[in-house]
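ESCALATION

Customer reports they have been waiting on this structure for their group meeting. Please prioritize. Original submission:
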Amino acid sequence: MNGIDILQPDEGLGYDFETTYTEDSTRVQSGVLHASAMFTVESYSYEATDVSKEDAKTILQIIAPGKPFMLHYFSPYHGEWRDARFYVGKGSLQIGRLNTENERFDYLSFNMIAVDPITKG
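Update from on-call: job pushed to the front of the queue and completed.
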């Protein structure tokens, strides 16, 4: 992220994609879809457990402002490693242990959504 190596997720990244359709898209009574695709975006889910305060701080300072950041990732759609802009709209962090100089978080999770679509129309 932004040229900074971050704590890697526990089991890799979850991959999702979502296509947005025009407002007039619908299904007729026979069940057939009449839709016009506008675009499709990729998204990745990140989850790490037993996160140190330093790792949490590094990641949160990149994603929490809600501004796009650069991510180096493997795109199954493109079949290659890429660099692209992503953003995070919501994440969660479970506080685990708060001891002086030994703070740990049970987990940190969030979804990273691509700024630019992988398909248009």
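Sent to customer with the following note: The first strand starts at residue 14 and ends at 21.
Escalation resolved.
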